[in-house]
Design brief:
Blueprint (H helix, E strand, L loop, with lengths): L11 H14 L4 E11 L8 H16 L8 E4 L7 E8 L2 E8 L7 E8 L5 H11 L2 E12 L5 E9 L2 E9 L5
Antiparallel strand pairs: 1-5, 1-6, 2-3, 3-4, 4-5, 6-7, 7-8
Helix pairs in contact: 2-3
Amino acid sequence: MRKQSLLEGPWRKYWTTMIKQATASHATLSHEHFILDAELSSSLDFSNRKLMTENLAADLLAGLGMEELGPLQIYDATDKQFPGWSFIQPITTSHISGHYFEETIDASHIHMDIYSCTPFDWKTVMFIIQKHFPIKRWSANFIKRSIGNMGREVLDIHYSDSETFLQQTKVSPQIN
């Protein structure tokens, strides 16, 4: 059986977009990754998880100007110690994923990743997420990275009780 090329099948749209962007700009392909861990002030309604997740994904796609690559997938947690659900939304430039854990030790939590080769604003992400979840406090990392001369930039963000703390680090590429 012939092995499928990267430009065939479900990843065709993704790789075609990446190649067009790299060719058009003659630039190094860069990636942005937003990683969020948040404590909620109240639990979510488990029976409403599908609609909540669909609305969140739709708002993130629209608000960040991203395109869906495949259907939104939602999975119930199977570990009874940590009830909740997870989701993944493939986008043409990578993915949006999230995990909700019902109240465990002290509070309910959400954990999300947004990874894209298209630049996006982390403040817009948080504005959208805070419309959908009752967030009490959160921490996040926003990473810009690439192979080549751009190196890596990391923004460490913490929010609690109406105070935001930001710390930025720039890491230069290593030369071998």
